[in-house]
Automatic annotation (TrEMBL):
It holds the Pfam family NAD_binding_10. Residues 10-160 form the NAD(P)-binding domain. It comes from Methylobacterium ajmalii. InterPro entries: NAD(P)-bd_dom (IPR016040), NAD(P)-bd_dom_sf (IPR036291). This is NAD(P)H-binding protein.
Amino acid sequence: MTTRTALVLGATGGVGGAVARRLAAGGWRVRALHRDPARVAMGADGLEWVRGDAMVPADVTAAAAGASLIVHAVNPPGYRGWDRLVLPMLDAGIAAAKAVDARLLLPGNVYVYGRDAGPNPGDDAPQTPRTVKGRIRIAMERRLREADIRSLIVRAGDFFGPNTTANSWFSSALVSPGKPVRRVLDPGTPGIGHQWAYLPDVAETMVRLAEREADLPRAAAFSMDGHWDPDGRQMVAAIVRAAGGKVPVRRFPWLLLPLAAPFWPLAREIGEMRYLWCEPLRMDNAGLLAFLGAEPHTPLDRAVRETLVGLRCPPA
């Protein structure tokens, strides 16, 4: 059997790392692009680290030689320069996919949907920009469709998992990485549902889809259900249980975000996403179920415990 090769852009991040490890565990040869491979553990998790810049098309194309899949999971940390860097990075990935005839996998999210998509948008629901990041996400998906390459978009809710980055609500707001859970910040609105996605489940879904290459349409897009928190209280309750059940829950200080913005760049980005905590928006995974038959799903309590361990927040 011929070993399949994948190039992962953003393998040091949450989604990219999870997908890279799952691909390697499944027998894929996985290359991971990094500007300074000496800074990462060479050979860790079965990955082959290669030097290159995701902003440079020639670097990405060279690293993609022989690959049938390119995972485009690279993002500027902390959303710094997001509006200037994201699309050029995607263009480099598209150029590489064209050059080597690979499918480009793009992790998507709920930002592309606004009120007119309804409370349960499907894969083909209308996309109207609601925020700056939403408009950029829509532009990314449009860029893929117009590029006429084989593409795969998998949209999911707010990420959490053992290697969640600081861009995540879970690790940047609900708990403090590297510290025991002594309190939980709750950004939700009572009675309003919220959609979460456990990174190992996301990675498993993406790899299962990628391994069905022969059955995928040229431009494929799917939405995950993930962990739906119907009243906005289940995730917080799971964290409290994992921490021993005696942890106070505080309201997230939304009103203080404008004051924190000059000192905390992520504050502005967090404030822009408040609408997702004020109205329910649950992406419909009917298309995914029809294609795969089932969606990978880790029970919430187990997923939360593994996340806290991975973030060095010792659970009880």
